[in-house]
Design brief:
Heat Shock Protein 90; 5-stranded mixed β-sheet; 5 strands; 69% helix
């Protein structure tokens, strides 16, 4: 009986040890599998972030190339053609002996030179608005909106809450480009009639930008599927470079709302 009892004790002892080892191995394997899942998940998140950053960078590069192409086209089509015509008038002046004809050619040449100067100013202004450099973001946006409203087709209004100070010139230009892109989208694609921009500066050195239009809007699910287009990617890219938070909402035939928060 004693030997039988001793055997039962050993059986229970080894059985308990075996179960404990089995549980320990199970826990270790579970931890290993969990860690592997976490690592895989982190890798997937990193891949998504890298892909997103790559898309933003590509959008920025494409935007820059488009800007260069547009400038080259403007210089070729507007300035180049005008200067060629001016040169033709000047060459005719050399062989002209009639005063009336000479004066007519001189006037045409002078008009073309003035037009060329105006075109160059417009191109230069589009590249770097002088009012942005001298007076700041608010005045530059108000000037932009004044030009839009001057068409009497679209009403654009900009309001500023709080005394917005001058800040880094690169950030000011980035924000101006964002507003410019939003405005262009509203005019070219959304067929909006009213644009409203609100800049709200708070004491924590945070700038809240709110932009709305009453255009035809879009389906949010299409944007989430990657059908955002270059314009939205440009806005996302610039907001990301500024370290800002960007949110937007829209519904078909109900316009859009963009909210941007940036720490200056």
């Amino acid at each position: 009986m004693e030997k039988l009892a001793e055997v039962e004790v050993y059986v229970l002892l080894f059985g308990g040890v075996g179960i404990a080892l089995f549980l320990a191995v199970g826990i270790v394997l579970s931890l290993v599998l969990y860690q592997r899942k976490v690592i895989i998940k982190n890798q997937q998140i990193l891949q998504i972030q890298n892909a997103y950053q790559k898309d933003l960078l590509q959008a920025t590069l494409v935007s820059e190339e488009q800007a260069r192409a547009r400038i080259a086209r403007d210089l070729h089509d507007e300035v180049g053609a005008t200067l060629s015509t001016t040169k033709l008038y000047l060459s005719q002046l050399k062989g002209s002996h009639e005063i009336a004809h000479t004066q007519d050619l001189a006037k045409k040449a002078d008009d073309l030179v003035n037009r060329t100067i105006q075109n160059i100013r417009l191109i230069s202004k589009d590249l770097s608005p002088a009012v942005l450099t001298t007076l700041g973001l608010v005045d530059a946006i108000q000037e932009l909106f004044a030009h839009v409203s001057a068409s009497q087709v679209v009403r654009a209004n900009c309001t500023c809450e709080g005394a917005l100070p001058r800040f880094d010139a690169v950030k000011e230009l980035m924000l101006y480009r964002i507003v410019q892109e939003l405005t262009n989208n509203s005019l070219k694609h959304a067929q909006a009639k009213n644009l409203l921009l609100t800049l709200r500066y708070v004491a924590s050195h945070t700038l809240h930008v709110s932009y709305t239009d009453d255009g035809k809007g879009f389906r949010m699910e299409e944007k989430k599927k990657g059908m955002s287009g270059l314009g939205l990617k440009n806005i996302e890219s610039r907001a990301d470079i500024l370290g800002g938070k960007l949110n937007f909402t829209s519904k078909e035939n109900e316009g859009v709302r963009f909210e941007i928060e940036i720490t200056l």
